[in-house]
Structures are given as structure tokens and as C-alpha cells.
Design a protein that fits this description.
The protein has 156 residues and is an alpha/beta fold. 42% of the residues lie in helices and 13% in strands. The chain has helices at residues 13-24, 56-66, 80-85, 87-107, 140-155, and strands at 4-8, 28-33, 48-50, 70-73, 113-115. It has a five-stranded parallel β-sheet, with helices on both faces. α1 (13-24) links the parallel β1 and β2 (28-33). α2 (56-66) crosses α4 (87-107) and α4 runs parallel beside α5 (140-155). The chain is globular, with a radius of gyration of 15 Å. The two termini are 27 Å apart.
Length: 156
């Protein structure tokens, strides 16, 4: 029986490409997206559940129904300039949305997560960025991704 992946933000650019890769690797793909920045026509690799990651109850119910083996999380806003002009939007969606997802995953007993982070967590570096490079974000987008990384570590 194929494994199932629940792809948040799977109607966006990166999420849809990852959904395609999962499908080609033999996974069943279920996309969860509110379509605020994604596109219905990019959901080609399995069913779409319309929902917002800030709706923890709907997320939990969806995870309970799908019973995925893993979640791949791409439902984040990712425009640096926008994060600087409207940081609250980024903290609500990226941080609160990830917290909502982690709570729903915990309630549904789903423990495997692929998280799409960003090199923006490192800020500006003159050296090659590695896992050992200190994280020093210089904008709200990078900061939200760094906070999400820490939350995922804490939940793990």
C-alpha cells in the first residue's frame, strides 16, 4: 500500500513541485491549501482539501480523515519586502499557522514532517552557508522561518 503525504500549501509553486515529486516516487498526495496564493490548477497529483492552516480544528479533522504517513509543510508567505511592510501578516500565517499545524499533527498522531525553511534564516553571510552557520535573520520573513524551525524542534 502506498504511503500518503499531506501537503500544506501544495497549490503554490514549491508545494506543487514537491507534490509532483512525491507522486512520482509512489506516494499518494493530498493537498491542503486555502488558495489565497496558490492555484487550483496546480493541484494535479491527488485531491485538494480547501482549508487554512490557521484553522486547527479543520486541519485536525482533515488529518484524521486522510491518516497520512507524513506532512510536507509549504503553506507560508515568502516575500521579504512584504514581510517588512506587514510583519503581522507573516507572524500570523507563518508562525501561528505552523503552530496550528503542529497542534493538529499532535492531536492526529502524525509525527513525520518535512518543513520548507529558507536561507533567509541565516541573514547575510560572506561564507558558504552550512548547517553550522549561525542563524541571524535580517527581516521578518527569515525570523518567522527561524521561529518555526525552533517550534518544530521543541515539538519533536
Amino acid at each position: 500500500m502506498p504511503r500518503t503525504v499531506f501537503v500544506t500549501g501544495g497549490a503554490g509553486y514549491v508545494g506543487s513541485h514537491c507534490a509532483k515529486a512525491f507522486a512520482r516516487a509512489g506516494w499518494q498526495v493530498v493537498t491542503y491549501d486555502n488558495l489565497s496564493r496558490g492555484h487550483r490548477d496546480l493541484v494535479k497529483w491527488g485531491p485538494l482539501i480547501e482549508g487554512d492552516i490557521l484553522d486547527t480544528d479543520h486541519l485536525r479533522q482533515s488529518l484524521d480523515e486522510v491518516r497520512p504517513d507524513a506532512v510536507a509543510h509549504f503553506a507560508a508567505f515568502a516575500y521579504v519586502a512584504e514581510s517588512m511592510s506587514d510583519p503581522g501578516l507573516y507572524y500570523r500565517n507563518n508562525v501561528s499557522g505552523t503552530l496550528s499545524l503542529l497542534d493538529a499533527m499532535q492531536a492526529a498522531n502524525v509525527s513525520q514532517l518535512v518543513f520548507s525553511s529558507s536561507c533567509a534564516t541565516y541573514g547575510i553571510s560572506d561564507d558558504l552557508i552550512t548547517e553550522e552557520t549561525p542563524q541571524n535573520p535580517i527581516n521578518p520573513y527569515g525570523e518567522t522561518k527561524k521561529i518555526c524551525e525552533q517550534m518544530i524542534l521543541d515539538y519533536g
